[in-house]
Amino acid sequence: LGLALYASSLCAVRGATFLYHDYCVIGAGPAGLQAAYFLQQAGRDYIVFERSHAPGSFFALYPRHRKLISINKQYTGKSNSEFNLRHDWNSLLSHDRRLLFRRYSRDFFPNADTMVRYLEDFASLLKLQVQYNTAIIHVTLEKNEQAWNGHYFLLTDQDRKNYKCSCLLVAAGTWVPNVVNFPGSEYVEGYETVSINPEDFAGQTVLILGRGNSAFETAENILGVTNFIHMVSRSRVRLSWATHYVGDLRAVNNGLLDTYQLKSLDGLLEGDLEDLAIVKDRKGKLHITLRFYLENRNISAGIDSITLPQDELDNFATRAPYDRVIRCLGWKFDFSIYNRSLRMMPGKGNIKKYPQIKPNYESKGTQGLFVLGTASHSVDFRKSAGGFIHGFRYTTRAVHRLLENRHHGVPWPSTVYPITQLTNSIIKRVNEASGLYQMFSVLADIILLRENATAFEYLEEYPTGVLAELEMQTGRKARNGLFVIIMEYGRNFSGADKDVFYYNRAVGEAQHAWQSNFLHPVIYYYKQLPTEREMRLRPPEWPLPRPDAIHHIVEDFLTDWTAPNAHILPLRRFLENCLSTDLRNFFAESCFLFAFTHQKLPPSCQQGYVRMQGLVGSPELRQHAVQAGLLQDYTHTDFSGDRPPDSHHGSQEQWMRDHGIPVRPLQHLVNAKDE
């Protein structure tokens, strides 16, 4: 029967008329709109399908109690727009300054209705190509050698209209509620339908299944009116400030932890929900028991015929009956609309609610199918922010850049600088870049060195998981070595059982930078591009393979890595050792003396002084340099002879030191193993 139905569907497909677009995007939520923006800016042929009458339909219902947990920080003390995005977790990326979320709300935790209005404006003001009231109910493949990926994607909507595209971007999110089936689960109310009026819970006892933000959000709403609330889940509570994962329990929702630990009747329990059973008595009360007590029993016969745990253990924790049981177990991806030919398979273990995708966000089963937004979170689940707007706005941009190179021959955007700007370029990015900051350990800046290290090419926010494929994915060459800049937390600082407030938790001295705990920049140096095998065999919990050299910039309380001695000087010395060159900037007078005393000039002299470029001297500038110890004051020195004055006898090196010309041997490369 299945084969017959599949054959008949193929026949129907062949006889149907299809509306073609190069790109089809399923879902007009934040990720879908962000993808549409980049496609429109690039002038591509695309269409976005949205099942609702407006964008962001998920936020029209969720969160049920309407308070978002994505921060909306109005003031940072900075005017740098890129830096400010580090603390704006709701805005999508665009060129229109009107579409910053802080212009829509001043609340630190905004109302979800504001997000709906924001997304409507984003779609309308930017004139994005969104087709509303279109629910895609079936997706399949059509083999075609002339197609971009060897096949077309065929989509059918609820009205049996058909569409064809070369590349499919799935941004439908995770919206199917997670449901656990056990005896008596029909008595459970779902988070998606339960009342949000606290008065409906007055004087009741409530059991909540789940331990995420939706569970604690529900508890927070009724905490002051219930007799008590119990919460049961398979795993222990995970606090976001301990795990440094924004999807774990946030402080704004954790009032139940106070009432639990301060002995105010509420409590948390651990247990496998599939082992539970619920029995309803004649008064409508719900009793918790275990599944094995009900084996070979008839629940409909009544509670009197059923053994309860308290019959054998009189202090059983959940022996008191409940008035209501609420399910708050989150959501999962909807796999039902995808034909088996697409091989859209769920992940394994704790990422089974997401489809299987590669580190470049492409489906493992089908080339040309990319998953964006919340549904792509399997790449960095419980590690970074890829499941949330402030993370996937950057991963969506990365996917767009990959597609531009693959299908349109547009290389990954890059900028070429002289090698003298290497230190400055890194310092600038680690101090303001939002993509590196939010997608720590997942997106990285790549510095590709030119021949003889005279210049470098800077690529921003490239996915670390496909570093080995960089040349193919970006259209850029990495023939002379590269630096990879990412942000990291300390190796052993994050975890549900970690005490992140212990004494001496922070590192302040540059020589101990590798022990930094808080988020800080890390620079990896590779003499050649890592291979796929090296990526697979990288050390556990390392985002990248072991490099030829590595440098940690010491963590900073203000996340301001501009201190000359603690941050910039160690970084410059590391870069100099890797490149065997001197990256300092010199005044013209020093370059002039170098020309007579050295076989090779420093890069700043080669690219500045020799080309008659640099600062124009003035009496004020010279006086400042003398006072700062950068130049020697020659105004009272007699150089009338053929050699330096008697006071400067000795070796050539000593003479150079006396005249303000730094002379020092190059240090050995930093060995990552030693560090």
UniProtKB/TrEMBL annotation:
Region span, Disordered: 635-658
**GO cellular component labels:** endoplasmic reticulum lumen
Q: Which GO terms describe its biological process?
A: ERAD pathway
Judging by the UniProt lineage, the source's domain of life is Eukaryota
- UniProt keyword annotations, A-Z: Endoplasmic reticulum, FAD, Flavoprotein, Glycoprotein, Oxidoreductase, Signal
List the InterPro entries hit by this protein, alphabetically. Answer: Auxin_biosynth/cation_transpt, FAD/NAD-bd_sf
Q: Which GO terms describe its molecular function?
A: flavin adenine dinucleotide binding; monooxygenase activity
Family annotation (Pfam families)? Pyr_redox_3 (PF13738)
Co-factor(s)? FAD
Q: How does it assemble?
A: Interacts with SEL1L. May interact with OS9 and DNAJC10. Interacts with TXNDC16.
Job description of the protein: Probable flavoprotein which may function in endoplasmic reticulum associated degradation (ERAD). May bind non-native proteins in the endoplasmic reticulum and target them to the ubiquitination machinery for subsequent degradation.
- Family per UniProt? Belongs to the FOXRED2 family.
Protein's UniProt name: FAD-dependent oxidoreductase domain-containing protein 2
